[in-house]
Amino acid sequence: MGILLLTSATLLLGLLLRPRLPLPFQPNSLQPGPLSTTQTAQSQLFPYSKDLLYLFFFSGSTNGLRSGTLRAIQPLTGKQLWQYDKPVLGTAFSQHGILYFSTSDGINALSENKHTLLWHQNIQAEIASLTETTLTASRVKSPGLIVMNLSDGTPLWDTSATIDNTILIPGGFQLLGNIMIQSVQPGSDQWSQRHNQVLWSFDNQIIYTASDNFGHLQALRSSDGTTLWEKDNIKSILGSTQGILYTTNQQGENTLSALRSSDGTVLWQQTGQQFTSGLDIRDSILYLHGNNHLITALSATTGQIFWQATFQGIVRLNQNGVTYLTGDNSLLAIRNSDGMQLWQTTIQNILDLSINGSSLYTATSYNASPLEAWQLDTNSGKVLWHYQFPEHPEYLGLWQDTLYQTSPDGNTITAIRLNAQKVLWQYKRPST
């Protein structure tokens, strides 16, 4: 069962831990990890699938994490299908028909269809990311990350000691400090190493470590700590995906290199651009943010530049050969094949975007301003429909042409089909 999640693209949810580890943002596609979740004071939407929508009603906190009741809802009718008996902490992840979440006594994997517990590990941590084979979680009571086997929850390796800072980059976490990496996999050769900088990569079984201020980069096999390859003259790591590591050099960050993760081979390089403000990776396209608001779109596999645009904003979607970007006051559509600007529309304070057929849907709100919904034509950017919600509800999520909102007190969830401009259902928080 394909899993899609509800998240505001403007918000990277910080886990309520020490250190704080933000969740990775990913585009609306069939990938593990949270794609779309917006937190409110009293309620939250969790992973959305064809048959299940999860509602999380907060009731308190445990070990510094929000706790509450998790309920599975039928997305078309709002009917409650089941409720998990124990309080759930923090966030949850859904992948291939299995729900992964934390409780006060550990991490759990639950079959969504049968509502049966597949495995439980007595490890107090909050889940941060999933791959096809591993689960990464952040410890609750002490700084550190732990990687577990996704099939049975067996711990594989973790970090400990002092972590001064944690930086989210595409494909992993960058940890800074006095970091001890150690293997905890049963039946394997135990190993441990201490480093000042570590990239915890999600898309393969490799740990990247660096000396102070980078310069020297080392790739370790996570199962046994073996050094796979080393590189010098590395200034920074921008991200990692699909077995490729993206770095800049040490002489001014004006050369972007794509390194094969398995052996460090340089696959391609681009020079002459100041890639200083971050990297987005969406469906095999790299979006590099440089000086003076210059955005460069490149092929993730070949380094070919598709287009460049000067725009003060962020990449929201890459869908049907078009990239959609939003700024403070506008929504911009650029054709990937030749960089042609298809259209630009003035809309302020965009929270999220979703495409269904030939229509683009967006939700907008800012501070005390009311929640608004918009329907636009994807070909022209023309506004087809616009509605301002009364009573200041809070935005929860947007999936295709359905918007989810909650009442100001967080006790009533409403699903609205924007294309038909009608309420699908309302779900009121049970008294017990």
What is the spatial order of strands in the main beta sheet?
Answer: 10-11-12-13-14-15-16-17-18-19-20-21
How does the major sheet shape up?
Answer: 12 strands, antiparallel
Number of helical stretches of at least 4 residues: 0
Radius of gyration: 22 Å
CATH architecture of the domain at 347-432: Beta Barrel
CATH domain class name of the domain at 347-432 = Mainly Beta
CATH topology of the domain at 347-432: Thrombin, subunit H
Low-pLDDT segments: 1-41
Spatial separation of the terminal alpha carbons: 31 Å
Q: Provide the structure class.
A: mainly beta
Number of strands: 37
Protein name: Pyrrolo-quinoline quinone repeat domain-containing protein
Organism: Tengunoibacter tsumagoiensis
Pfam family, one: PQQ_2
InterPro entries: PQQ_b-propeller_rpt, PQQ_rpt_dom, Quinoprotein_ADH-like_sf, WD40/YVTN_repeat-like_dom_sf
